[in-house]
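Protocol step 4 of 5: obtain the predicted structure for the target chain.
Materials: sequence only (see below). No template structures provided, no constraints applied. The aim of this step is simply to have a reference model before the mutagenesis design in step 5. Sequence pasted as it appears in the construct record:
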Amino acid sequence: LELRGSVSHEWGGDKSFEIGVGNHISESRVGSQQLPSRIASLDWMINPVSKLSFSGNFFTGENVHHLGALRQSFRVAANGVINTVHSTGGWGQISIAATNKLTFNSFFGIHDDRDSDLNRGQNGRNRNAGANVMYKLAPSVVLSFEGIQIRSNYIGTANRRMNRYDLSIAYLF
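Step 4 output (structure tokens):
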């Protein structure tokens, strides 16, 4: 079961805001055990002036991986008991539409799993920040270059930092 409600308002033609709240409730089956998935979220998009927007999302809950989060959603303890992993996170983005074809974006995000819910060596937290530039080659074709840094903290082991650069082309349906 998923629900989302939102309110929005526009003024002055090119200024607007939208804020939404959501909830997700389901069960995951692991062997013969049913594990709850409970997630609450808050999202927003604000356009304070023409060509500038702020958007983002915040979430908290347990057993959240099936919604595109870190891969672990449960832990099998040494005694065989299976428990869900509690998580908190979110992301934010600033977009500047320089022209009708060219957009600059800067973004950041975090996903933090409760350390006590994890085994040694599992990923306890990911933080990322990056930027991209998108150019519309045609009404439905976008070319993008992106740079991002991801910092991962693993429970009881080393932390990692990864730089990633992507060049993509997309077709908009």
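Step 4 remarks: The radius of gyration is 19 Å. The longest strand covers residues 33-49.
Proceed to step 5.
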